[in-house]
Amino acid sequence: MNRSKFLLILTLLVLGGLPLMAQQKRVSPHETVSANLDGSRVIIVYGRPYTKAPKTGEVRKIWGGLVPYGKVWRTGSDEATLLITQKPLVIGETTVPAGAYSLYTLPNEDGTAKLIINKQIGQWGTQYDESQDLARVDLKKSDLEKPADQFTMAVAKGAAGGGVIKLMWETTQYTVDFTIQK
Questions:
Q1: How far apart (Å, rounded) are the C-alpha atoms in residues 127 and 62?
Q2: What whole-number distance in Å separates Cα of residue 87 and Cα of residue 35?
């Protein structure tokens, strides 16, 4: 897909979602992160909730509290997190075709977690249709050197090529490596 087609699709996706977003009130700030890796742009659009409750300022327990164990989480706040890729990605053993997807996370009490790549986009809140899952891939858990008060995602160059998606909040970081399919 050439750059102009990709930008047109991205613009249509964003503009198509504006009426939905206007009907719902966002609680958290939103951010777009991206990286150009191996000739392909990878973009993530997500809501960035804080550890402190927006109305009371009370510090919340994140993993196993606000983000319950054993339940699918939208990987951010407000509408579902959006992954857009210009070229196919290989995440775990799954090939993710070029296009747009929603990302969900399934954390477990034992510290393991899965990243869920879902073919449906534009869902608000906890709307989730498991039948639309493209894949569920294992995330690697590690401790953060410094606690993250606000949920943060990153797309970065991988140590061995390709890239890595990072999810960071409270004292925990989850990561998954990916490669760009040539």
A1: 20
A2: 13
| pTM of this structure | 0.86
| Distance spanning both ends of the chain, measured CA to CA | 12
Domain boundaries, the chain: 3-180
Average pLDDT rounded to a whole number, residues 45-61: 91
- Alpha-carbon Rg for the chain, nearest whole angstrom, is 16
Question: What average pLDDT does this structure show over 114-139?
Answer: 94
Residue 80 tokens read as 């579902």
pLDDT, mean over the chain: 88
Cβ atoms within 10 Å, residue 7: 12
Element (H, E) at 119: none
Given a cut of 90, whether residue 160 has pLDDT beyond it is no
Q: Measuring CA to CA, which residue among 63, 166, 74, 176 is closest to residue 110?
A: 63
Higher-scoring residue by pLDDT: 21, 110: 110
Burial 129-142 (b: 16+ CB within 10 A, else e): eeeebbbbbebebe
Neighbours of 67 (CB within 10 A): 21
